[in-house]
Amino acid sequence: MIGCSDYATELAAIRLWEDKAPAITDDERWQRIGNARKLMAEEGVDALIIGAGTSLRYFTGIRWGMIERLVALVLPLQGEPVIICPAFEEGSLTAEFSMDIRGCYWQEHESPYALVARVLAENQCAALAIDPSLPFGMVHELSCALANVKISSASNIVDQCRRIKSPAEIAILQQAKLMTLEVQRRASRILKAGMKASEVCSFITEAHKAIGSDGTTFCIVQFGTSTAFPHGLPQDDVLAEGDMVLVDTGCLVEGYNSDITRSYVFGEPDAEQQRIWNIEKEAQLAVFNAARPGALCEVLDHVARTILEQHGLGPDYQLPGLPHRTGHGIGMTIHEAPYLVRGDKTPLQAGMCFSNEPMIVIPDRFGIRLEDHFYLTKTGAQWFTEPALSITQPFGE
């Protein structure tokens, strides 16, 4: 049904999503804090500091982007958690904050890093783990203010907390991905010869809003030879008959991301487009079938490359073939640890969520990426979205 409708008709047909997943509760956030403390104890860490951004929202529900002023959670191993915040932002903070966590506020002429030092001293903390996403300048200021405190990265602690999704998180991720798949399906219906990629991007932006998400987080629309570049070229492609179409986009729901890619042809696919699409489908399915608890992340990347090599593609990152990793973790950030790539020996566990996108690039001709996501159960993998059926049925119609 590619190209069977138009922009206005498809946008008007979108309805607000009715089957909404419940929001994350404060009880679950306290469980996350408890989990972080267990990991801190295992690593010999007395306190954890989490800066503004996705991890702060993960642990507290505070939706605060990183700015030049320090806004952070200080979590002692023993003692009450504290939110460090500029004093003039106290009203904004409390307006959206429901957890019973003490706020410590600093005036514009004061050092928030000295305030962190005081909180750590009150709790007799001698070893601090710092959020890996905290800017270098803030880390430097902390190290100067905490001369007698051992500082290390909190990457392992944060990643271990966030990589295993709860049933509530999986439900939100499911909603986000289904929303984007519906938007993708409708975007394919508005295509017509002469259409610019930017027009499709505009439709996707409007459609993600109309369906009830918190908005489009990114949008990649490529036609023809541009599809041979994984993230496109700095140009506004114009659609022509026989072009490969690659649309990669996602939205945000309650802080959680979708990220779905479909590749298909506008018009009739030729023999080579059909052949490569089928290989891509085979590789994606092989990765899914290999995903089970205990398997190493890097093994799934190897599985995809083995399929491609059997068809004369590659080997390794050589083109024609797969130029990047096979997949990434996903949650409150679009790309997060662990990764389906050689060298990542993280064992798969129930609750982990991944993209599955072993793209095939044919230089100077086209590229095909099928991207769906799955989560691990105790017995194997479960799709969030049904993969494309064929190059002519990318949405099962």
UniProtKB/TrEMBL annotation:
Domain Creatinase N-terminal: 32-164
UniProt key word Metal-binding: yes
Domain Peptidase M24: 173-378
Gene3D superfamilies the record matches: Creatinase/methionine aminopeptidase superfamily (3.90.230.10), Creatinase/prolidase N-terminal domain (3.40.350.10)
One of the protein's GO biological processes: proteolysis
A single GO molecular function term of this UniProt record: metallopeptidase activity
Listed InterPro entries: Creatin/AminoP/Spt16_N, Creatinase/aminopeptidase-like, Creatinase_N, Pept_M24, Peptidase_M24B, Peptidase_M24B_aminopep-P_CS
UniProt KW keywords: Hydrolase, Metal-binding, Metalloprotease, Protease
Recorded family membership: Belongs to the peptidase M24B family.
UniProt-recorded name of the protein: Xaa-Pro dipeptidase
Species classification: Bacteria, Pseudomonadati, Pseudomonadota, Alphaproteobacteria, Hyphomicrobiales
